[in-house]
Every structure is written in structure tokens, then in C-alpha cells.
Amino acid sequence: MTVDQMSTVADRPRATASAGRTRSAGRAGATMTARRHRAFYMFVAPWIVGFLLLTIVPMAYALWLSFTTFDGISPNWHYVGLGNYRELMNDSVTWDSLGRAGLFAVVSVPLSIVAGLGLAVLVNRPIRARGLFRTLLYLPAVVPPVGAGIAFKNLFDQNAGATNGVLTFFGFDAIGWLADPYARYVLIMTVLWGAGNIMIISLAGLQDVPRELHEAARIDGASAWRTFRSITVPLLSPVLLFQTVTGVIASVQTIMPMLLAPLATTGGLTTVPQSNYTYMIHVFSQYFALGRYGYASALLWVLFVLILIATGLIFRFTSGVVFYNVDPEAKK
Amino acid sequence: MRPHAGAPMSRRRFLSLSAAGAVGGAAALSGCAMQVSSGVGGGSGETITMMVKADDITPDLVQQALKDTGIAIKRVDFDITKLIAMLTSGNPPDLVRGVGAVDAAYFAAREVMEDLDPYFAKSAVLKRDDLDPVNDLWRFDGRTQGKGPRYGMAKDFSQDSMYWYNTSAFDRHGVAYPAELEPTTYEEWLETAQRLVQRSKGQTSLFGGTYNGLLKATLMSTLTASAGGSLFSDDFSRIDFTTPEARKALGWYIEYCKLKVGASPIMPDPNGWDGPTYQAGRLAMCNSGYWMGGMIATDEKLAEVSRLAPTPVFEGGPRVSACQAGTGLWMPKKAPHKDAAWRIFEWYFGEAPAKARASGGWGIPTLKSLRPLMPAKAEHQKRVLKVQENELKHFSVVAFSPYTTGDSFEALFNQVAPAAMTGEISVDTLAGRLNSVLNEQLKRGKEQVG
């Protein structure tokens, strides 16, 4: 018997015990993993149940409705297959409203991001009463949209609004801000007014930009603008992408035109001026004014698909300019 | 001692449950045989659901109802989406708020309203010969509004094409007041509004007058009736704005909007209605009926200078003075507590709340017997009442189509008409476009009703 064999033999009982421990440890590990999985699913179960009941079921119901002429109350509604979708394709009002929503997104999203980022840069500087400025600038974002709508209606009223008061004081003629064609500008102003929301997110992003990079750039003689353009913006690019995607989704779904109309209720949607008659107002109008649940559901499903496509395109076209500062180890 | 769950049933308990079952069964059977209450006292101890706005029944009135009738009221905020959901799920409210002028025919045609004729026939509170003609807005015979069974009742009403004017605005401009009992013409009304309006640098400090009606649907149909025609075809399945009468009505309204003498879709009032502007002394003539007197009376100075004027007429046209709303209550066909609901219906329309409304001056009572309660103490109240009483002689129901809602008419009108108000398209082009979009909606409605 060789020494090796001896040791092997001598070690055998210990090895067997060790193998037993490994197996039991393995079983314990598997049990632990199963327990962890079970805990995970138990924790997420409320959300999943909520998601199924409050999101998937209503969406599926709306999809079903979109194939019908259901109006909520009439006895003779029926299945029309793709009839609503065909009608939608030939409905100029639908396409006009979609165009207005798209234009609103194209104008308001970049403007609000630039405004929010600008404010974030300003209040990120070491100035006196910085906290107060941050609070004041964020304040409009906290105001409920209905309140904002009422404030803007009174501010921009043609005959008694402060805006026209200032204009006429300086010798200009008053403008009918809340009617065509100016109503669209007031709508964009409401978005800019709420830019504090974007400011807060951008501010958080700015504070994540490593200070040493800025210092290195300064030592290398880079100007403030160059530093901002080449260091700050690339490092903020994931934040900006997030704001773009959520901004586009929110802006095509905005119901602010309704809140700016004389009656800030569902009745108000019938008085929305044409320049603010965006896609979502059209949807509301079809649902609640015209009682066309089927057609309005088709409109919503088309919007859902268009948003998916728009989001995909944004990701596709920004893939080369968005930089994720992620620790490679953290990916595992 | 109360037995615990699952314990065998005692003989006494079995007998008492059997007795209760027998009584319940008998009650259910008798309910099947006679679903109409005798009127007073029905449904005591029950709870009914009322879908109304907060102002329609205050918490104090809810308490009062319980005291007066023994019936508890659960108020649900009026919301058309919620109502449809409740109706389709088979669990509707027991009483629902509605605007008689536009809702009655629409819901009745869809057979979701309870025919209240058998209840009215037996009621000692709401007698048919005491009902004001405005309640005919809540009748529908399957084709025409104003005839056939009653499906609801108005809580109070006004002749909404009448208008209030502020004498101080007229005095300032040296413009003669409108005649007290004789109507001015719509054309003259517009001329007066132009003379009264005050503008500077695109801002209006004094509006000459507003004339938007309560709903575009009822405004356009009553204006057309005033021109001597009808907006709808005989079977209410088509609309025609190109008839001479409808064209005249439409042309007048578009002219009113173009002149910008008052609020319109192209010069909206941020308040959503004329009241605050009139109250602020910035509106010379205000197209609101008697009901606005309730608001005016809260300000003595304003009440002193305010006058109510008869509904205008078109030159050569008939004198038509309709109610454009007739807001009230109806009972869904599948209401779970019909007898209790009817008892509250009686109480609401004929007892304490109706009397309080009648004396409040916010509307004309819908029971003729309550008319003496209308406020007539102060000088200004007497003046208003004299004009109003004379105007009642010219009341008529202008029927609306059961194939569309007031909201859908409003939405489609406001979508198309502003182009004509800004002069981009002619009134004739507008008439054609309105015919196109509104007839499409009516066609859909007719298909759905069957």
C-alpha cells in the first residue's frame, strides 16, 4: 500500500462524511434557493395580481370593445371586426389630432428638458439660499393639474387676465390666448411651467457626475461649456433618455387642453379649441361626449402601439449617444 | 343566547326563521303582484341610492328625508361613466339626475328608464293635473319627446331663452330698455349688444350680451323653432341646417360669435358661464332665465338694477319660449328599491325640498300648486315675477332627437363651427358640414336603438 493509497484509505471515512455534508449542504442550499424564490414570488404577488386585474384585464376588455359598436347603453351594439380600425384609418379628425399631439411632443419635450436641465445646472451651483430656489422652482410641479389649469385660464383670459394686462399697459393689443390660434402656446407654457419635475431628476443626475472629471478637464484648460458638453451631458445621457421617453409618452397623452377649456370637467372637452384638439382629447370626446366606446378603445389601442414604436425608435436612435456608467461586475 | 355559528338550529329558531321566510315570501309575491306603492309611506326603513350632484341634495336634506320618510339616502356623485357602468352591471342607482330636454328621450328610447305613469296615477302628492307642462320634457312615446309615458320630473325650471339686463349699463350708453312684456327681435337684440359693448385694445371691459343657451343642442333647436321651423326631420333621425329656418338660426348665432359682444367658443369665458361676469357688472345682457334671479338676489345692488326680459323672436317668427334643461330625476328600470325610490321622488318633488326650492327663487316650481311660493316681497321680485308670469303663456316643449346626446351635439358643433365664427368658412359651408357630422352620429344612434 502506497503512502498515497494509505492516506486515501485513511481519509476515506472523512471524505465520505465530507461528501455527506456537501450533499446535505446542497439540499439545504436548494431548499434555501426555493425558499428565496417562494419569498420573491410572495412579495411580488400583490403587484402581479394588481397588474393582471387593473392593467391586463382592462386592456384586454378595451381590445374586445374595439371590435364592437358598444356605446355603454344601447341595446343593439354588435361585433364589427376591424371596422373601427378601418374607420380610424380614414378619419381625418383622428389623424389631425394625432399630428397635433406629435407636434406638441416634438416641441414641448425638448423645450422642457432643456429648461429643466438649465434650472438644474443653475441650482446645482454653490449659491446662497440654494435650497429655497430649488423649492420654489419645484413648487409648480407639485400643483395639481386642475389647479394649474384654473391658474392659467385666469392668467391668460383675454379680457381680465394679467398677461393681457401687461401687454395693454405697454401699448400692445390684447390677445385671445385661450382660443385659436394662440391656445397652443399657452399649452406649451403649462409644460414649461412644470419643468421643476425634470429639474429635480436632472439635479440628481448632475450630483452623480464625478467631480474629479470636471477638475481634470479644468486642469486641461477646457472651458465651462466644453466641460458641460463633453463630460456632463454624456454622463447625464441615461437621465436625458429617461426624460425623453417618459416626456413623449406623457405629452401625447396630455389632457391639459381640457383643463384649459372653460369647463374643467368632461364637459370641457367639447369646448377645447381646434389648435389644442390633440389625440387624447379626441379619445375623451369619442368616449364621453359621443359615447363611442368601441371606436375610442380602438383609438387607445392604436396609441398604445404607436407609443411602443416611438419608444423603440428613440432607443434605437439614441443607442450610440447614451452612455451607461455601469460597473461591469454589477452586471453579473 | 345567540347560538354560535355551525351549532344545530334550535326548534324555536327554526320556527322563527320559517315564519320570517313565509312573511318575506308573501311580501315578495305581493310585490310581484303590485309593484306600485300607494304613495305615502312606501319603502320605510330602506336605503336608496341617488346619483346626483352635491347641490341636488345636501347632507341636511338627506337627514330630513330620513326624518320625513323613514328612508335613508346614499348619495353617489353623478358621473355618466359610472352611471353606464352601474346600468350595464345590473346594479343601477334608484334615482338618477338628468337633463330632461336632452336625456329623457335618449334614455327612454334605450329602455333603461322606468315608466312612472302607474306611480303618478296612484300618488296623492304628485297629481297629474298639478304638473307644470315643463314636465312634458320627461315624456316620450317612442318617437317624440313631450308625448307618451312620463319617465321623470323636473325639479324646477326656467324659460332659458329669456335674458337679464343691467339697467345701469343701458343708462350709461343712453340705450332704451327692452319692453317689459313684449319681445324684442333677435336682430334688435344683437344691435343693442353692439351698442352696449365697450372695448379697448382688444380687451372688452363691458360685454354687450351673451347668448349661448344652456346647451348648443337646445339652443339651436329652440332658435330654429323661433324662426318657425324644426331642426330635425319628423322622425328625428336626420338634422338639416340648410332649411331657411335653421339657416337663419345658425346664421344669427354665428353673427353673434363673430361680433364678439359676448362669450363664445372663440372668446371663452374662463368661468365657464356668465354668472360671475354679470355679477361683476361687466355684462349688460345675460341669456339666462328666471333661475339666475336666485344668484342676483344675493346682491341687493345688482338686484335693484337687474331686469328680466322676454325671449326674443325672429322677425315674422312665432313666439317660442322653451326650457332648455328641465333638470330632474328619473328611475332606472332595474332600480332595486322602486317603491322607496318613488317615495323619495314624491318627497323631493312635492314636499319640503320642493317648497324650499320654490321660495328660493332659483327656478319656477314644477308643480302649479307651488307657484304662490315664488318670492314676491321685494320690488325687484315683483317686477321679475310679472315678466315671468306673462312669459309662461308662451312656453312650449321643443322636442329633441332620441338618437344623440346633448354632449355629442355640443362636441361636434364646437369642432366644426369655430371656423365659421372666425370667418374662415361661410355659414352655408358650416351648415353642410354640421349636417354631415351630426347626421352620421344620428345614424349611428338610430342603428343602436333599433
UniProtKB/TrEMBL annotation, chain A:
<keyword id="KW-0813">Transport</keyword>
<feature type="transmembrane region" description="Helical">
    <location>
        <begin position="101"/>
        <end position="123"/>
    </location>
</feature>
<keyword id="KW-0812">Transmembrane</keyword>
<dbReference type="InterPro" id="IPR000515">
    <property type="entry name" value="MetI-like"/>
</dbReference>
<keyword id="KW-0472">Membrane</keyword>
<dbReference type="Pfam" id="PF00528">
    <property type="entry name" value="BPD_transp_1"/>
</dbReference>
<dbReference type="InterPro" id="IPR051393">
    <property type="entry name" value="ABC_transporter_permease"/>
</dbReference>
<keyword id="KW-1133">Transmembrane helix</keyword>
<feature type="transmembrane region" description="Helical">
    <location>
        <begin position="186"/>
        <end position="206"/>
    </location>
</feature>
<dbReference type="GO" id="GO:0055085">
    <property type="term" value="P:transmembrane transport"/>
</dbReference>
<comment type="similarity">
    <text>Belongs to the binding-protein-dependent transport system permease family.</text>
</comment>
<protein>
    <submittedName>
        <fullName>Binding-protein-dependent transport systems inner membrane component</fullName>
    </submittedName>
</protein>
<feature type="region of interest" description="Disordered">
    <location>
        <begin position="1"/>
        <end position="27"/>
    </location>
</feature>
<feature type="transmembrane region" description="Helical">
    <location>
        <begin position="40"/>
        <end position="64"/>
    </location>
</feature>
<feature type="transmembrane region" description="Helical">
    <location>
        <begin position="135"/>
        <end position="156"/>
    </location>
</feature>
<feature type="compositionally biased region" description="Low complexity">
    <location>
        <begin position="15"/>
        <end position="27"/>
    </location>
</feature>
<dbReference type="GO" id="GO:0005886">
    <property type="term" value="C:plasma membrane"/>
</dbReference>
<keyword id="KW-1003">Cell membrane</keyword>
<dbReference type="InterPro" id="IPR035906">
    <property type="entry name" value="MetI-like_sf"/>
</dbReference>
<feature type="transmembrane region" description="Helical">
    <location>
        <begin position="301"/>
        <end position="326"/>
    </location>
</feature>
UniProtKB/TrEMBL annotation, chain B:
<dbReference type="InterPro" id="IPR050490">
    <property type="entry name" value="Bact_solute-bd_prot1"/>
</dbReference>
<dbReference type="Pfam" id="PF01547">
    <property type="entry name" value="SBP_bac_1"/>
</dbReference>
<dbReference type="InterPro" id="IPR006059">
    <property type="entry name" value="SBP"/>
</dbReference>
<protein>
    <submittedName>
        <fullName>Extracellular solute-binding protein family 1</fullName>
    </submittedName>
</protein>
<dbReference type="InterPro" id="IPR006311">
    <property type="entry name" value="TAT_signal"/>
</dbReference>
